């Protein structure tokens, strides 16, 4: 039980550090590419509707959605795909995908069957 808690703590610390890396990738690499295409890296003021004095900001949701899609794409293409390739390569190298079945030893022939076979062969040779 204690080992699992330590593993979980290590995973949380690494996940926190990794979230900083992914956020930096999205903020400093991918969002500038989006802003070059669309014209603005932030869609907060892009779409806002005022109804009865209340402002509904669809742009904030759109910005969060684009950030989520970019983060998930970054995680998939930077971590998941290479990890799956490495696991596939390891399994292929270690032959883990298909385990050859051990050859079964033939069952020994019972003594009475063996004796009857010898008698049959002797009678064939006699005739």
TrEMBL record:
<dbReference type="GO" id="GO:0005886">
    <property type="term" value="C:plasma membrane"/>
</dbReference>
<keyword id="KW-1133">Transmembrane helix</keyword>
<dbReference type="GO" id="GO:0008381">
    <property type="term" value="F:mechanosensitive monoatomic ion channel activity"/>
</dbReference>
<dbReference type="Pfam" id="PF01741">
    <property type="entry name" value="MscL"/>
</dbReference>
<dbReference type="InterPro" id="IPR036019">
    <property type="entry name" value="MscL_channel"/>
</dbReference>
<feature type="transmembrane region" description="Helical">
    <location>
        <begin position="60"/>
        <end position="83"/>
    </location>
</feature>
<keyword id="KW-1003">Cell membrane</keyword>
<dbReference type="InterPro" id="IPR019823">
    <property type="entry name" value="Mechanosensitive_channel_CS"/>
</dbReference>
<dbReference type="InterPro" id="IPR001185">
    <property type="entry name" value="MS_channel"/>
</dbReference>
<protein>
    <submittedName>
        <fullName>Large-conductance mechanosensitive channel</fullName>
    </submittedName>
</protein>
<keyword id="KW-0812">Transmembrane</keyword>
<keyword id="KW-0813">Transport</keyword>
<comment type="similarity">
    <text>Belongs to the MscL family.</text>
</comment>
<dbReference type="InterPro" id="IPR037673">
    <property type="entry name" value="MSC/AndL"/>
</dbReference>
<keyword id="KW-0406">Ion transport</keyword>
<keyword id="KW-0472">Membrane</keyword>
<keyword id="KW-0407">Ion channel</keyword>
């Amino acid at each position: 039980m204690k080992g699992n808690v330590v593993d979980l703590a290590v995973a949380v610390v690494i996940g926190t550090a990794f979230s900083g890396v992914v956020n930096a990738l999205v903020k400093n690499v991918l969002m500038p590419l989006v802003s070059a295409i669309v014209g603005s890296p932030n869609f907060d003021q892009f779409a806002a509707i005022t109804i009865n004095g209340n402002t509904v900001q669809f742009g904030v949701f759109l910005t969060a959605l684009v950030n989520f899609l970019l983060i998930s794409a970054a995680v998939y293409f930077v971590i998941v795909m290479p990890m799956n390739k490495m696991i596939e390569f390891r399994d292929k190298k270690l032959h883990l995908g298909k385990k050859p079945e051990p050859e079964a030893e033939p069952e020994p022939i019972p003594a009475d069957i063996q004796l009857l076979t010898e008698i049959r062969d002797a009678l064939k040779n006699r005739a």
